[in-house]
Structure formats: structure tokens, C-alpha cells
């Protein structure tokens, strides 16, 4: 295998046109350069220079090897720079996964502050459900994942992935403007047994939405008129007067035409957290986690 140090010497001989010139650039003695050149010729198995009484020039093989060697040295220099950037906390790459409603306020606000402080960090964003993206955290493809867990529908992260809780996101009652429940500070879930509901498709076994699980604990089955897994769609249907809904606070943005109020019932909240691998060596990860936790605390203080 060719020695990269000797390839660099050959490149300098090619550039300067002499052993003395290469020695000056590399801060070596001419004899050391001449020795390394001889060793490189032995490694290559061909003559690389033609020596004259007053001159030295590269052979055709020497010129080809010099050019190829410069390409190799450029790649090595680039690799070293990449590694240096990755080892610093103010540059590098960070892959962040998050669920849709975390993308309304929580993640954008944390990213805005983080990117302002670390503008050289390359950010990669992946949206999806926690249970879908968690394996990518385990495999190291995603550095950090913002997750939720319904108190009535818990899930377990993969082995090697730890979840740090940030705050509880309350389920809020969303009703059309003018609905009697919208004028109250808090409503009991069992008071709404006769209402028509709009809810999600649900998960688990049996497949039930959070609303259906909560109503079961209160002793009734809700009258579900429509289903959607998109909070914007659910709010639009509520706004149109087609029913009422339970939606977590992070999922509510446009409240025109609707009213929200708190609702009392069994475990009507979801835990918002952040999942990562404790062994992840990414140097920018701790900084982003700190900004995310700070943003979460601000949201909790201002909204909850």
C-alpha cells in the first residue's frame, strides 16, 4: 500500500520542480525528501523521476501517480475536516424526528433558538408517529425524537432508547362557538354522554380512540359521527357544527369558530417527551435537548 506521506512529498516535487523546493515547503531536509522518494519508487515498483546533472523531472508514471495522489490527499483532508466539524458542538449534523402537532409550536420554537445559536449545524427533520420512528432512534438514524404517550394508551420504547418527559399536554374539549359547554371553565366528561362526537381512528387492541377509552371508564359509549386522524380536519368538522371533540392542546391552532374548555375525566392528557440513545456521541445533541426542554418549560408556563 502506498504511503500517503510519500504521496504528499511527490506532489510537492511535482509542484515545485525540485527536491530542494519540496524540502522547503515540507520543512524537511533534502536528503530526507530524497530518501522518501526512493522508498515510494520501491513501493510503486516503477521509476517516478528522471534525474539529470542539474535537473529532476517526473516520469509519465510519476506524473500520473502525483495527480492521483493529490486526489487522494484532497479526500483525506476533506474527511479530516468533516470529522473535526462533527466533533465540535457548534457544527455537524442533527436528525430530529417529531409528531405532527409538535411541529406547530414546540419543535419550531426550539429549532429557531437552536439554529440562531448554531447556524452551521445541518438539520434534518423527519415527521411521523413515535412508534413508527422509534426504531430509527434505536438504529442511530435519528438522533432525537419528540414523542407523546397517551395516559390511556401507553407504549414502550425500543431497547436502548430512553424517554425523558417534558410536560403533560391536556386534552381539551372543542365545541362550536355558542355551545353551552364553551362558556364553562371546566366540564365533566360524563355530562357529554348525549353529544355527537368527532374522534380519531384509534390504536391498540381493541382499536379505540382516547375518547372511547375515556368514555368507557365513565360508563358510556360515545356517539361517534365522524373520524379523522388530522386535528385540523376534526376542528373544521366541529366548526361546521357536526359534533364536538377532544383534542390535545398542542394540536389546537386555529380556534376561529370554535371554543375550548378544560374537561375533567380519567387521565385526559398525554405525556410529551423526548427519546434518544444515551450512548449517542453526537456532540450537538445535548445542546438541542437543552433548548427543547427550555421551550417545553415556556409552553407549559404560558399555556398550561
What key attributes describe this structure?
9 helices, 304 residues, eight-stranded mixed sheet, two-stranded antiparallel ribbon, alpha/beta
Walkthrough of the structure:
InterPro entries: ArsR-like_HTH, LysR_HTH_N, LysR_subst-bd, WH-like_DNA-bd_sf, WH_DNA-bd_sf. It comes from Catenulispora yoronensis. Residues 2-59 form the HTH lysR-type domain. The chain is rod-shaped and about 105 Å long. Strands 3, 4, 5, 6, 7, 10, 11 and 12 form an eight-stranded mixed β-sheet that branches. Strands 1-2 form a two-stranded antiparallel ribbon. A two-stranded parallel sheet has the order 8-9. Helix 1 (4-16) crosses helix 2, helix 1 (4-16) crosses helix 3 (30-44) and helix 5 (106-117) crosses helix 9 (285-303). The chain has nine helices and twelve strands. The chain is an alpha/beta fold and 304 residues long. Helices cover 40% and strands 25% of the residues. Strand 1 and strand 2 form a beta hairpin.
Amino acid at each position: 500500500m502506498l504511503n500517503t506521506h510519500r504521496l504528499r512529498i511527490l506532489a510537492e516535487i511535482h509542484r515545485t520542480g525540485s527536491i530542494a523546493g519540496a524540502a522547503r515547503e515540507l520543512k524537511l531536509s533534502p536528503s530526507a525528501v530524497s530518501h522518501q522518494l526512493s522508498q515510494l519508487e520501491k513501493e510503486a515498483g516503477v521509476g517516478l523521476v528522471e534525474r539529470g546533472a542539474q535537473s529532476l523531472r517526473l516520469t509519465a508514471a510519476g506524473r500520473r501517480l502525483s495527480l492521483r495522489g493529490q486526489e487522494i490527499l484532497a479526500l483525506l483532508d476533506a474527511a479530516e475536516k468533516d470529522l473535526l466539524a462533527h466533533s465540535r458542538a457548534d457544527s455537524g449534523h442533527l436528525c430530529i424526528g417529531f409528531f405532527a402537532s409538535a411541529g406547530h409550536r414546540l419543535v419550531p420554537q426550539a429549532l429557531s433558538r437552536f439554529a440562531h445559536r448554531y447556524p452551521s449545524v445541518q438539520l434534518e427533520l423527519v415527521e411521523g408517529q413515535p412508534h413508527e420512528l422509534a426504531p430509527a432512534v434505536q438504529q442511530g438514524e435519528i438522533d432525537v425524537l419528540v414523542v407523546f404517550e397517551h395516559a390511556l394508551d401507553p407504549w414502550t420504547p425500543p431497547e436502548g432508547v430512553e424517554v425523558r418527559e417534558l410536560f403533560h399536554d391536556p386534552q381539551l374539549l372543542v365545541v362550536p362557538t355558542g355551545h353551552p359547554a364553551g362558556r364553562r371553565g371546566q366540564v365533566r366528561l360524563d355530562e357529554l354522554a348525549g353529544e355527537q362526537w368527532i374522534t380519531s381512528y384509534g390504536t391498540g387492541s381493541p382499536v379505540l380512540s382516547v375518547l372511547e377509552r375515556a368514555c368507557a371508564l365513565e360508563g358510556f359509549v360515545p356517539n361517534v359521527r365522524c373520524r379523522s386522524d388530522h386535528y385540523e380536519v376534526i376542528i373544521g368538522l366541529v366548526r361546521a357544527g357536526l359534533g364536538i371533540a377532544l383534542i390535545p392542546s398542542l394540536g389546537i391552532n386555529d380556534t376561529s369558530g370554535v371554543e375550548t374548555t378544560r374537561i375533567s375525566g380519567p387521565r385526559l392528557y398525554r405525556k410529551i417527551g423526548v427519546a434518544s440513545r444515551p450512548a449517542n456521541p453526537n456532540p450537538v445533541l445535548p445542546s438541542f435537548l437543552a433548548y427543547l426542554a427550555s421551550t417545553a418549560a415556556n409552553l407549559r408556563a404560558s399555556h398550561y
